[in-house]
Design a protein that fits this description.
Elements (H helix, E strand, L loop, with lengths): L2 H24 L5 H6 L1 H5 L1 H17 L3 H19 L14 E9 L7 H12 L5 E7 L7 H5 L7 E4 L8 E6 L3 E8 L6 E9 L2 E9 L13 H28 L5 E6 L7 H6 L4 E2 L23 E6 L2 E9 L8 E8 L1
Parallel strand pairs: 1-2, 7-8
Antiparallel strand pairs: 1-12, 2-4, 3-4, 5-6, 6-7, 8-10, 9-10, 11-12
Helix pairs in contact: 1-4, 1-5, 4-5
Length: about 350
């Protein structure tokens, strides 16, 4: 390969991924249909970073100095949505703070199988949680709330959405008192979130249990690629509007202690995650290996779409994704301290 052809390829690749990186960095700003149209790019965010790094290494090895700066900038631009939520000062345990373990899991209605309920509840209890946030709780008539809570006798405080929807119901179970629980229903959707005040001794924090609009990447297998793309974009636009509602509610709480967790159906690069996580830290930063998939789909490109964010007098000490079988999501586990 001659020098001219090599330079042309380098120019094309560096320019292409620089544009992708700039778009990733800017996705959280416009919102609406513009950000929704780029949802697939957001889902591929870590692949863009990997491509930037490969290009950078290639140009370093070939000593093509004119491209190294471009590749460095591209990498930083693409990393910005991740780094902006990274707590660069990790704090050691404070003896005056209250330790707390929270698990969050989309349980896929326990597949409406008693054995699935038994297996997943045991998996949850093995993690020693103080608070359990469930997404996609079964409809009351298909598997009663009493049946579910009977598997968690050490978590006597329970709240759930009052309007019993056909799907996408929520539940929070806790060892600590749960106060002023409210459910917010998104317009024209079964998706929703709960805001619950948790009293932990003489400390407290606001907990948000969230389920946002599905991406539908793997839905409608028989439909055309164009129809799939239209569905992804339409759902992303709905999810972005839902994120605006959730973000406004979090902002109205002020500077208090907050933990947000649930099934966001979007990667950290997407408008919805960036909007909700504004001013908060990402628990994933405490376990970089947890950047891998949190849901099981037929395509390999989908990154982590289940999220945990926190702010205020809340410190995260550890985060993990735990496989449990049955459901198509992994369980999130965050270990916190409440000051």
């Amino acid at each position: 390969m001659n020098f001219w052809r090599t330079t042309t390829i380098s120019k094309s690749l560096s320019a292409f991924f620089l544009c992708c990186s700039l778009l990733l960095m800017a996705l959280s700003w416009p919102g609406g249909s513009f950000s929704a149209a780029l949802e697939l790019l957001a889902l591929c965010g870590y692949y863009v970073i990997a491509a930037d790094l490969v290009l950078l290494l290639w140009h370093v090895l070939r000593r093509m100095r004119q491209f190294i700066v471009i590749d460095l900038l591209s990498t930083l631009f693409a990393l910005f949505p991740v780094l902006v939520h990274f707590p660069f000062s990790f704090k050691s345990g404070d003896e005056n703070s209250q330790p707390l373990t929270i698990v969050s899991w989309n349980v896929d209605n326990f597949l409406l199988e008693p054995q699935c309920l038994d297996d997943l509840s045991l998996k949850i209890l093995n993690e020693g949680p103080d608070i359990i946030c469930l997404q996609e709780r079964p409809h009351q008539h298909l598997m009663s709330k009493a049946t579910i809570t009977s598997r968690f006798p050490d978590h006597p405080y329970v709240v759930y959405n009052e309007r019993e929807d056909e799907v996408l119901n929520l539940m929070v179970l806790s060892k600590y008192p749960l106060n002023t629980a409210r459910t917010f229903y998104f317009p024209g959707s079964y998706n929703k979130f709960m805001a619950v005040d948790v009293a932990v001794g003489d400390k407290s924090f606001r907990l948000y249990n969230v389920h946002l609009q599905t991406t539908s990447v793997s839905d409608n297998a028989a439909s055309s690629l164009t129809d799939k793309l239209k569905l992804v974009i339409a759902n992303a636009e709905s999810r972005n509007k839902q994120a605006d509602i959730l973000s406004a509610e979090i902002e109205s709480y002020g500077e208090g202690n907050v933990v947000v967790c649930g099934d966001f159906n979007s990667s950290i690069f997407g408008y919805s995650c960036q909007t909700v996580a504004h001013g908060m830290n990402d628990a994933t930063s405490h376990s970089p290996l947890s950047l891998v998939q949190s849901s099981f789909v037929k395509i390999p490109i989908l990154p982590k779409i289940d999220q945990m964010f926190y702010k205020g007098g809340v410190d995260c000490e550890d985060y993990d994704l735990i496989e449990g079988g049955w459901t198509d999501h992994k369980m999130q586990k965050g270990q916190y301290r409440i000051k």
